[in-house]
Amino acid sequence: MANSTPLVKHLLVTVLSEKCYNEFFINLNFLNVMCLKVLVSKMLGFAIIGGSLMVKVPQIMKIWANESAQGVNFLSVLTDLYAISAATSYSFVRSFPFSAYGEGLFLGVQTLMIAMLVLRYNVNNAISTIFTCLYAVVIYILVTMTPVQTLWSMQATSVPVLFAGKLMQARTNYINSGTGQLSAATCTMLLFGSLARVFTSIQETGDSIIIVTYLLATLGNAIIVAQFIYYRKPTPAPKKKKVQ
């Protein structure tokens, strides 16, 4: 690899850092603990970003196919959208590595689509369209005009807001004695994604607010996944044939 093309070297240095590139491919030291942590963190980060392309698609398709958002708590969706927007805008403005927050872009779009569908089926199309336009304006303001300190404050407030949103959805499930139109696949993927993000955030950002955000997101997602298990419908026992 010492004679690798400049493009390949540039990509590897961008992902691993100059020091770890030298350790792995110049010194052939593949047991450097710090660089191994960097490598695992980067691989996890890009895997999460790849998975985020589809993570909420099952939820979107379930609402769309059934033409119903029954059981989906809109305030919970809204707090999720707020937390994703705050975290992604903050990380973007702070110039954190894309592997540390990139999934926020895709999760934000998918969460917005869920919010649009909930408003469409629970209210009407006009309100759904207005909400989408307002959200686009807010995002533009966040990434172009908002001071970093304000974004940090939003990121900090998103921690309790996000957890409260998860608890609101859990409460809705409890009241309904079921999970309604929630997608088990989406909630399970969100649980494992937020758990992996705890490690990558520690490794790549060291930002305590982001780390706590993902810790609470993991706890909230775990509660909802546990409700899927608790409220799942038992398989009916086969009927015994009567002996004539």
Automatic annotation (TrEMBL):
GO terms for cellular component: membrane. The keyword Transmembrane applies. InterPro entries: MannP-dilichol_defect-1 (IPR016817), PQ-loop_rpt (IPR006603). Gene3D superfamilies: 1.20.1280.290. GO terms for biological process: oligosaccharide biosynthetic process. Keywords: Membrane, Repeat, Transmembrane, Transmembrane helix, Transport. This is Solute carrier family 66 member 3. It comes from Rhodnius prolixus. The lineage of its organism: Eukaryota, Metazoa, Ecdysozoa, Arthropoda, Hexapoda.
